[in-house]
Amino acid sequence: MTPIQVKVEDKLFQNRYKVDAGRPHIKIKDNEVCRTDCKDRSCTYVCPASCYTAEGNGAVTLITDGCLECGSCRIICSEHSNVEWEYPRGGHGILFKFG
Ligand code: SF4
Ligand code: SF4
To answer: Is residue 47 within 6 Å of ligand 2 at its C-beta?
Structure first.
């Protein structure tokens, strides 16, 4: 029997996300720290939902739509403590696995 291969992207597509417009539940405290003090910018490749993006000018942008609330960005940034993290308000955020 041939094994079924499922991509992570396909699994993530089964989730739904309710945006809390104008109230992101995660924030970068000081973008200058990302730009000048953080060499690895680990958040940009550890986030499974690709919420963090390294920009060409050294800045890092964060868009929390699609966040899986895994907490990885908070942990990976512990050296700089530059991520302000909380769960979304009730009724907002990720709704896991539809279909
Ligand atoms: S790991 Fe922290 S300090 Fe580094 S780029 Fe990401 S948010 Fe900024
Ligand atoms: S909590 Fe997880 S999914 Fe959400 S922004 Fe951080 S690393 Fe990405």
So the answer is: yes
Q: Distance, CA 38 to ligand 1 centroid (Å)?
A: 6
For residue 51, pLDDT over 90 is answered with yes
SS3 43: helix
- Which atom of ligand 2 sits closest to the CA of residue 76? 7
Place of tokens 């964060």: 62
What the chain holds in terms of domains, given with CATH numbers, is 8-95 (3.30.70.20)
Nearest protein Cα to ligand 1, atom 8: 34
Ligand at minimal distance from the CA of 24 is: 2
H helices present in 1-99, as ranges: 8-12, 31-36, 43-46, 72-76
Reported as a pLDDT band with limits 50, 70 and 90, residue 99 is: low
Q: Nearest Cα to 47, choosing from 60, 38, 31?
A: 60
> Chain-wide mean pLDDT for the chain?
92
